[in-house]
C-alpha cells in the first residue's frame, strides 16, 4: 500500500524529482485540457530554482496552452554548467512524464548563464524550442535547428542591448528573406525592464548586481515578459488557428516596437564601418570645413593595420574650375580587448583616431582669411549630439531626468606624432558624470611636412549612445 504522505505528494500541483545533486521541481498546469507544452527553466549564475516559480506561474495564467513547468536547480555552486545540464534536462523530462505530461513539446528557458549553456546543449537535444532571458545564443539564429525567442531587457545592466543588437541585425536580414523569421526567431527589446526582473529573488544592491533601475514594477515586468513568452509558444505549438494568428500579430508588433529601440544602436554602429571606410571621419571632416562643408568631397580609409595608419597623411586638393575640395582622411579604431566576449564591457570603440585636414588648411586652400581652429573636444560634443538625436524620446527623457551627464574636458595637446599615438583618449567616471578628454595634434598650415594636419583621438557616437542608454543610468 502506498503511504498516505506519498499520495499527498502525487496529488499536489508541484513535486520534486532528483538525480544526484541536480533536481527539478515540477509545477503542473492550471488548465485541464488543451495543447501541452513544458517550460524547463535553467537559472542564472548563482540563482536558485525557486526564484523562477513566480514568472512561471504568470506565464501559466497568461497562456491558453496547458503549460507544464520544470524548475531545475542544485547545480554545483549554483552555477549551471555543460557537465550537469544534460542530466538536469533528462530528470526534468522524466519528472514531467511521471507527473502526467503526454506531449513531447519541451522548451528550454534559460536566464543569463542558464541560457548560455542551454544554447549549446539545445542544438542536438530533444528540446523543441528555446527561450533566452537576458542572454544570447552564441550561434546564428537562422541556422539554429529549433525556434528561439530572445528576450532583451532595455535596461539590462549585465547583458547589454548593444550586444543583443547583433542578433536583431541577424533577424532583420532573415526577415528580408522571409517574414516567418519574426515568428521563429524573434528578438524582443522589452522597454523599461532590467536583468533581475526575469526572476524573483531577495533584493541585492544594484552596485552588487551591476543591474540598472527599471522603469516598471516587478509585477508589471512579469506580465510583459509572460505576454511575450505566450505569443512565442502559442505561435509555435498551438493547434487553434485563430490563437496562432493573434500571437503572430503580437510578434509582428513586438518586432516593430523592438526595431524602434534597436535602431539608434544600429544607426550609430553604421557610422563606424562601411566597407573599408569610417563614415564618422567624413562627418568630422565636413564639420571642420565649417562654412565650406557643402563643397568638400571627403574620402576615407579605415585602417586595420596601425603601421599603415601611421604612414598616412591626409591630402587636400582644391579644383578652381569646380570650386570644390577633395580631402582624403583616415581612421583607426581601438576596442576594449575582450569586447566581443565579455558581456559587461562597452561594445562601442574605446577610442577612435582620426587624421583630418584642419579648418585653417581648407580656408587657406580656398584663399580665405585665417580662422580659429576647431578643437577635437568639439568632435566629442558632436558625437553626443548625434547620439542624443538618434535616441528614442523615451531614452532621451530618461537620460535627462536620471542619467549622469558627459563632461568634455579641454584637449590634451600633443607636440609630436609619436606623443599623439601613445596618448590614449582619457575617460573617467565620478559623481559628476563621464569625463572625456580628447587628444589633439595640430600642425600649422605653413608647416613644411605636416601643413594643416589635424589629428584627433576621440570617442565614437556609438560610445556616446551607450553612455546615454546604459552606463549613465547606473548607481554611482
UniProtKB/TrEMBL annotation:
Key words of the record: Signal
InterPro entries, sorted: AB_hydrolase_fold (IPR029058)
Source organism superkingdom: Eukaryota
Span of the signal peptide: 1-19
Protein name per the record: Alpha/beta hydrolase fold-5 domain-containing protein
Phylogenetic classification of the source organism: Eukaryota, Metazoa, Spiralia, Lophotrochozoa, Mollusca
